[in-house]
Specification:
Length: 457
Amino acid sequence: MSTIRSAAVAGSFYPANAAALQASIAGHLAQAAPDTLPMAPKLLVVPHAGYIYSGDVAAQAYAPLVHWREQIRRVVLLGPSHRVSLRGLAAPSATAFETPLGRVALDQAALARLDRLRQVVWSDLPHAQEHSLEVQLPFLQSVLAEGFTLVPLVVGEASPAEVAEVLEILWGGDETLIVISSDLSHYLPYAEAKACDRATVERILHFETDLDPYECCGAAPLNGALRAAYHHGLAPRLLDLRNSSDTAGGERQRVVGYCAIAFEPPVTGDKPRPDDAELGGVLVGLARNAIAEALGLPTHPVAEHPALRQPGATFVTLHDARGELRGCVGRLEATRMLGDDVRANARAAAFSDTRFSPLTVDEWPGLQFEVSLLSPAVPIAAANEAAALAALKPGVDGVIFDWRGARATLLPQVWAQLPAPRDFMVALKRKAGLPADFWAPDVRLYRYSVRAFGDPA
């Protein structure tokens, strides 16, 4: 028998009228950048407050999905239980969830595969009034093609291993998107909330699985998702971090934090988006203009690109007219807007790389530019150096070597000069100021990928 889970928070968390709801969603998506993700995310972390508070932040994660609206056919949606005490994860008996925008059918076959798990209970009560799942549906209905199916699970008291086991069964392929619904801190003063939420996001980006409900209300589903994401080698990308005072103004003594984070699948080869060439031209143009302006030379117009207004991490590499390295400076973490990062790194590569004297006007003719756009770094699990060498992907991985403050990185482009993993590792250690034969149990390695853009031939 078909049963429908009707909308419970329409009219409070979001508009109950379909036309008003469509206008609200369109407004949030319009201010988001749809071109911030180079490939389809496998997992999203999104907030779940009323749209007036968290809608703009959630839209930063949902807007890019329009590029893969036909590909994503199933959404696995997990959120915390706010109103019902629950042990484990609750699956509903309903056949569809309804919002003012229509019904979303549940994937009954996928839900049936969870029946053997002791941590999964079948109960409609936790779903009946739960907003953490419901508020995501209008966004999904707006950005995905009609006909996608849903696997909704309310998460109560559950260990990371229990949640991860469920996600492994539902993981699927490119057709499956996992969405974790969670807000951050609640009701702290503005400055304290900013610091707390920034620290929590850093823990999320480093796959720490001991988050507690004081850091984020969706800690239980998020801890399990982070465990599964790490196992699958996903790379996190912070899309937005704000709080209710940032988005809705007003009260600063009691704010709620929100973040949007995408976890991308590991890079197994170049998967450029059609607009990569456009973005590359913009980044190289910004780097050229930054140095030209500093030298007092003419600059050239550079097109606007929505990615420039999102956090990004880049390296800018300069070569002289003979092709010799003339400077290379960058950042490994996206701590500022992409456009600002490229301009700052270009100036630093030209004038602050301590290996070279500052660039002069006489060197400008023939100067060659390359901008590398970095993915977020993810840990490389390795018990010893032999395991680390075996885990490296020559020609693909940028690698960070970190041991008690001795830190160095080599971009993937360096594999062209050092194709053997052992030679690559030796160069990393020497760059960190360590002997070639050094190794210690507490060495930490991280990998990242880059999209490299150079001057036109």
